[in-house]
Amino acid sequence: MRKVILFYNTMWDRPLDHLPEPIPPPYVLTTDRSTADEAVAIVFHLPTLPPGLIERQLTKKKGQLWVAWCLECDVHLPHVNDPSFINRFDITMTYRLDSDVAVTYLEPDLPELLRRPPADKEDGKLLNAFVSSGWNQSRRIEFLLQLMPHIDVHSYGRAFRNRHLADDCGRKTKLKTIEAYKFTLAFENAIAKDYVTEKFYDPLIAGSVAVYLGAPNVEDFAPGDRCFINAADWRSPEALSRYLVEVASDEHLYASYFEWKAKPFRPQFSRLVELTKEHSFIRLCRKVDERLRQPRTKSCWSTSLTR
C-alpha cells in the first residue's frame, strides 16, 4: 500500500517538479490536498503558510506526522519560536544542521566548481556587492553604507546601486561579474547559527575573496583554511576597508586566500557535501518511515528550530 507525503504548500508556491528518482517505495510525494486524510505526513512550508491555518483550520489525523519546512532564517519568522505553534510539528526540515532533515545551500557539484582557479582581475575592480532584499536583520545595509565612504564599492544590487548589468541572466551573470573583482561582499540577510547560503559560496566559486557577514559558525561550512575574510573580525567597516586595501596591494598576501583551492577540503565540509548528494526529499521519506515505526510521543520537535 502506498504511503503519501503531501506538500500542503510548496516553497514560494513553485511547482513540486524535478523530484528525485527513485522515491523510496512505497512513498509517494504529491501536492494534491485531496489526499490529506490518506497522507501519512503533511509538509508545510512555513514562510508561505497562511496565518492561523495550523492553529485554527486544520486538524491532524491520528498517527499523521506534520513536517515544518523552512530554508529561511527563523529570525525572520517570529511565530516559529512560539511553542504553541511549533510544537504542532513532528519533523523539521530546515537549514539547521540539528534538524531532523538538514537542508544546506551546498550544490552537489560544488566541490568541482570550487577547484576552478581564480581568473585574472580587471583594473579598477576591487570590491563588489549584490544586496537587494529588504530583509536586513543582519544590518548589512547599514554596514554597506558605512563601508562605502572608505573604499570603492561597485554595487549592483538595489541597495545603493552605482553599477548596472547590461544583460542580467540571474546567478550566471552574477558569477561572471564577480570573478573580475578581488573581493565580493557576501552579506547574509540575517545572522544565525548554520544560516550559510549561496552568498558565501558564490565568490568562492567565482574566484573572488568573500568578505562575509553572517553565521557565527561559518567556519563549519568553509571548504578550507583562509578562504574568506570575516567582517566580524574587524572593529568597524573602516578598519575592514583598510585591511582590504592592504591585501589588494600585496600580491603574495592576496594569493594566500586561494591556497586552499589546491588542498584537501576540510572534513566537516566534506561531510556536508556527502549530505547534499542525497536529495532532502529522499531523506525525508526515510525519516518519516523511521518515525512511523516509533512509539508516538506528544511532540518530536525538541529544540530543532527553537532557541
| Named CATH architecture of the largest domain | 3-Layer(aba) Sandwich
Shape: elongated
What does the main sheet amount to?
6 strands, parallel
Low-confidence stretches: 298-307
What is the CATH class of the largest domain?
A: Alpha Beta
**Domain module tally:** 2
What string, H for helix and E for strand, traces the elements in order? EEEHEHEEHEHEHEHEEHHHH
Quantity of strands, as a count? 11
What order do the strands of the largest sheet run in, or round the barrel if closed? 2-1-3-4-5-6
Instruction: State mean pLDDT (0 to 100 scale).
Output: 93
Strand-pairing-aware structural class: alpha/beta
Fraction of residues in β-strands: 5-15%
Q: What would you say this structure looks like, in words?
A:
By secondary structure, this protein is of the alpha/beta class. It is built from ten helices and eleven strands. The C terminus is likely disordered. It folds into two domains: 108 residues; 156 residues, Rossmann fold (3-Layer(aba) Sandwich), CATH 3.40.50.11660. The chain has a six-stranded parallel sheet with strand order 2-1-3-4-5-6. The two termini are 39 Å apart.
